[in-house]
C-alpha cells in the first residue's frame, strides 16, 4: 500500500483536533458542574445540622418524660413545671440520696442545662396542671444558625420548636 502525496494534505486538514473554542466551552461546563456540586454539598451540610438539632430535641424531651415517669409522685403534683428561667438544685442527686421533691428540682436543673448547652438559643417550657393523671407539654425551641435565612425580627436565624406530651399516672 503506497501513499500518494496528494491525499496527505486532505487527511491532515480533516483531522485537526479540538479548536480553542471547544476547549473553552468544555472547561466552562466543567466549572459550572463543579460549582453546582459544591452548592449541593453545602446545602446537604446545612440540612444535616438542622436534622441533628431536631434529633437532639426529640431525645431531650423523651429524656425528661422518662425522668417524670421515674418520679411519679412529684410529677403528678406538678413539680416538673418549668417556665424556662434559671433552674438550680441545692442537691446533687447523683452523689447523694434525695427526696422526691429534691429529685424533681435536680432533674429540671440538670436537664435544662443540657438543653441549653446542646441547642443554639434554646428556649424551654414544661407545663402541666396538677392532677392524676397529669399531662405535661414539653416545648423545646431553638434557632438555626443559618444567616442567609432570617424569618424572625430578632435576626437570630430560623426558629424551630419541638412539642412533646407526657402523661403520668400515679399508681400508688
Question: How is this structure best described in words?
Answer:
The protein has 172 residues and is of the alpha+beta class. The chain has one domain (18-168). 48% of the residues lie in helices and 16% in strands. The protein has helices spanning 7-14, 20-70, 72-76, 100-118; strands at 123-127, 134-144, 158-168. The longest helix has 51 residues, at 20-70. The model has no long low-confidence stretch (mean pLDDT 84).
Essential attributes:
about 170 residues, about 50% helix, about 15% strand
What's the short story on this structure?
The protein has 172 residues and is α+β, with helices and mostly antiparallel strands. The chain has helices at residues 7-14, 20-70, 72-76, 100-118, and strands at residues 123-127, 134-144, 158-168. It has one domain.
The secondary-structure class comes to alpha+beta
The main β sheet shows up as: 3 strands, antiparallel
Q: What's the domain count? A: 1
* Shape type: rod-shaped
Q: Quick check: average pLDDT?
A: 84
Rg over alpha carbons: 32 Å
Amino-to-carboxy terminus distance: 107 Å
Beta-strand residue percentage: 15-25%
Number of strands: 3
Order of helices and strands: HHHHEEE
- Give the neighbour order of strands across the main sheet: 1-2-3
* Helix share bin: 40-55%
Number of helices: 4
Poorly predicted runs of 5 or more residues: none
Explain the layout of strands and helices.
Blueprint lengths: L6 H8 L5 H51 L1 H5 L23 H19 L4 E5 L6 E11 L13 E11 L4
Antiparallel strand pairs: 1-2, 2-3
Helix pairs in contact: 2-4
Amino acid at each position: 500500500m503506497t501513499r500518494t502525496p496528494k491525499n496527505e494534505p486532505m487527511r491532515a486538514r480533516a483531522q485537526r483536533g479540538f479548536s480553542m473554542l471547544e476547549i473553552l466551552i468544555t472547561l466552562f461546563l466543567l466549572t459550572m458542574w463543579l460549582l453546582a456540586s459544591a452548592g449541593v454539598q453545602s446545602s446537604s451540610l446545612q440540612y444535616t445540622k438542622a436534622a441533628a438539632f431536631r434529633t437532639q430535641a426529640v431525645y431531650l424531651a423523651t429524656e425528661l418524660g422518662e425522668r417524670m415517669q421515674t418520679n411519679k409522685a412529684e410529677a403528678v403534683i406538678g413539680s416538673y413545671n418549668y417556665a424556662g428561667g434559671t433552674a438550680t438544685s441545692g442537691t446533687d442527686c447523683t452523689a447523694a440520696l434525695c427526696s422526691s421533691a429534691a429529685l424533681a428540682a435536680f432533674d429540671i436543673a440538670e436537664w435544662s442545662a443540657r438543653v441549653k448547652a446542646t441547642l443554639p438559643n434554646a428556649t424551654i417550657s414544661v407545663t402541666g396542671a396538677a392532677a392524676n393523671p397529669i399531662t405535661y407539654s414539653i416545648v423545646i425551641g431553638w434557632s438555626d444558625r443559618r444567616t442567609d435565612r432570617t424569618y424572625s425580627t430578632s435576626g437570630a436565624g430560623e426558629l424551630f420548636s419541638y412539642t412533646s406530651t407526657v402523661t403520668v399516672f400515679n399508681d400508688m
